[in-house]
Amino acid sequence: MRDLELFHAAPSYYSMVARLALTEAGVPFISRLLDIHVAKQQLSPTYRLLNPHLTVPTLRGPDLLLTDSSEILAFAAEQALHPWADSDLAFRAGIAEAVAGHYALSIEDLTFSKVLSTRPWFKLVVVRMLTGINRSLEHEEQRFPEQATVLKAKQEQNRARLAVFRDRPAAEVLSDQRAQVASYLASLPPVVAGGWLFGSRLSSADVVLAVLVSRLEMSGEQGLLSRPDLQQWWQRYQQRPCFVEADVWTRFKRREFVAALLQARRTPIKA
Ligand SMILES: N[C@@H](CCC(=O)N[C@@H](CS)C(=O)NCC(=O)O)C(=O)O
After folding, report:
1. How many domains does the chain have?
2. pLDDT category, 269, cuts 50, 70, 90?
């Protein structure tokens, strides 16, 4: 497989899933950074043609276009140089369930409600930002009527975000998210010492769990990882060279955040 390009953002959760999955699978990719926070390159006309969800990550190859991290994860599992537990029929259903359970969580609600519950002034910033984005998406609809469907869908997504972050108390959203994460973690299979979630080989479920636990740690919510077997699993996962190589954030890295934004702006997206 040659010349795969990964469009991603350094601090983005689902970009980390894609980076970790591809790195663990030994699938090389060319990094194409996007500034999704300030310049909002994910909303640009060029990127809209690439990924109709207007989100990162996207994986593009000569005969390949994957526009969701779950697709990139499945692709990595198929391509893995050293087969993952996903290739074992006995584990397939369990892994699929663990991965689907992870995707049913709202990482954005968890992250933002945590930030808003500790820094209430941030609410105004989020509300203004989402309202401003929707105004410019409406404007874009006039300029690019052929892209109206994707532009309308994004506005709808932002309205749903406003309904959570503007209209619901952050503490209540956070408490819901904590309960959901706790019940997800409780549903995972017991980890045998020295092994991974599904036996002695890594799986897609380990990849998403590693990114989830990293986000819990970054949000100061690592207390949710109360199971001793999962705590040991986490200690071991962090030792994996791929975890470091994939740049999975367990804390907010301010300098890297700015450096990635600058790099993204220097390298515009090519259709
Ligand atoms: N289901 C998608 C979710 C991707 C997603 O929400 N990405 C976030 C960053 S972690 C994003 O691009 N946000 C920018 C936006 O929504 O405008 C996936 O798994 O790839």
Report:
1. 1
2. confident
Contact 20, 211 (CB under 8 A): yes
Ligand 1 atom closest to Cα of residue 43: 17
Closest-CA residue, ligand 1 atom 14, reads 55
Q: Is 261 in the pocket of ligand 1 (CB under 6 A)?
A: no
| Contact 12 CB / ligand 1 (< 6 Å) | yes
* Residues 6+ away with beta carbon under 8 Å from 171: 113, 117
pTM of the model: 0.97
DSSP 44: S
What residues make up the domain containing 28?
A: 1-82+242-271
Q: Is residue 52 within 8 Å of residue 67, measured between CB atoms?
A: yes
CATH number of the domain at 36, please.
3.40.30.10
56 CB near ligand 1 (under 6 Å): yes
